[in-house]
Amino acid sequence: MKPSSLNARRRQRELEGLADGGVVDVLVVGGGITGAGVALDAATRGLSVALVERGDLAQGTSRWSSKLVHGGLRYLAKGQVGLAHQSAVERGVLMERTAPHLTRALGMVAPVGVGFGMGDAALTAAGFVAGNLLRVAAGTSRATLPSPRWLTPHETRLLTPAVEHRGLRGGLLSWDGALSDDARLVLAVARTAAAFGARILTRCRVDELHPDGAVVHDTVGDQRLLLRARHVVNATGVWADRLHPEVELRPSKGAHLVIDAGALGHPRAALTVPVPGEPNRYVFALPQEDGRVDVGLTDDPVASATEDPVADEADETFLLATLSAVCERALTPADVIGSYAGLRPLLEGADGATADLSRDHAVLERSDGLLTVVGGKLTTYRRMAEDVVDRVAARESVTAGPCRTAAQPLVGAASRARLADLPAPASLVRRHGTEAIELAELVREEPELGHPVVDGRPYLRAELRWAVEHEGALDVEDLVDRRTRLGLVTEQRPAAVAATRESLRAALATGA
Ligand SMILES: Cc1cc2nc3c(=O)[nH]c(=O)nc-3n(C[C@H](O)[C@H](O)[C@H](O)COP(=O)(O)OP(=O)(O)OC[C@H]3O[C@@H](n4cnc5c(N)ncnc54)[C@H](O)[C@@H]3O)c2cc1C
Predict the structure, then answer these.
(1) What digits encode the pLDDT tens for the residues 457-474?
(2) Whole-model pTM?
(3) Which residues line ligand 1 (CB under 6 A)?
(4) Which CATH superfamily is 74-179+249-346 part of?
């Protein structure tokens, strides 16, 4: 086993060690991108860390994002230059240093003549130039993210073939970062933290949170445990107010539809569609690496945070209608092969107004020392973690090194040149980085593991075995919904579950 390997045995051993009276420096609650980032930041500064998550890693919002690694253009449009720069810097850190294996440049096409009028196009082009300057200011190379440019109508249709050709005058092409899978980013961050000694304990629900520990229910062993810590960080996202009631959150739902790439002519770039009558609001059709396109997103306040938000009929109608307005063929519900939704936390301000924390993050400290970190973006998770661990490090009696995470490659990371040369299938490299070599080795030893879990999808049986032995997958849902995305396509889900159940049994038989 590697120091970064997570599995049922390690979980059990580490949980027993803590329940036996062990005290950690930092207890992190929540295994989304924020909590995983905090665990990594604290562990790399030399602090002892335990992270507890009630479900699986990336059980919450962090697996339902648009998977964009934003450059901050949106913030620039609102005059938030500092925030825009921060976002662009973090995008560069992820794409060039910490996670080149999980990120790629994604072309974004704004079709002009349909969707965007000539007037809008001039403004949009000016925004793209500003976005390019942000990239330069953040020190991100043009090889990582090319400069924006004008497309002819022919080029526009080559990249986004579904676009209506009548009236099309061309397109504006810009580039942003995209993740191959947001849940796998969370996993990579958590495993890197584990390599630095952090205990990553899934299926541990916090029922009571105190400044010096937590009452935790281990839902695997069905036992109540008292975990003790010198400092506690609540990183439970949209559920943060349940453990820190003074934090007043107002969630907002964002839904995506999943469409087969064939229905949109197998686009090679994302399509940007303005929402009529709502300036600066867009619907995106985002091509994914596994043959689907995710269409999002909505933004609707909900009364309270539910555990499993879903995309409903109204979301579907809005997204299909907005996208269809620029397409040659109108999309219908029959084109939708799956859907998902996540909740953004909106923080209620002191004056009753709401501050949109999807734009920024906040570190809130209670008088008893309990820290809560909420808001932000996947893109800026590293900075959020740095901010909250800085608060811990500044406390009397804490000896912690400086933040090191901007230079700490995540598990599987390597330069793009090295990744391109790895002797393993490109599809495995995009999900596993350098570890794809070990997966390819597994397949050589057991050729049976080289078969896809479900025909026509890219995931191999070897990846399920790997997930159980090294990626902390404990049950079928972890495998189908977070280590892979086999469960996203509604029609394929039963077959994926059945095949995965079989693989899980085999993997457990090997002793994981
Ligand atoms: C629809 C949508 C699209 C988005 N798109 C993008 C994008 O393209 N790019 C980008 O950068 N950002 C995007 N974001 C923002 C980004 O997804 C979120 O900011 C980020 O995922 C929040 O992570 P988190 O760790 O704070 O919360 P979460 O991922 O929700 O993690 C919180 C965790 O806490 C756990 N938890 C809760 N209560 C307890 C308890 N009592 N005990 C133990 N564990 C508990 C939950 O199970 C959960 O796993 C998007 C957000 C939404 C909603």
Answers:
(1) 999 999 999 999 999 999
(2) 0.97
(3) 29-35, 52-55, 59-62, 64-68, 70, 205-206, 235-239, 243, 254, 297, 342-344, 358, 376-379
(4) D-Amino Acid Oxidase, subunit A, domain 2 (3.30.9.10)
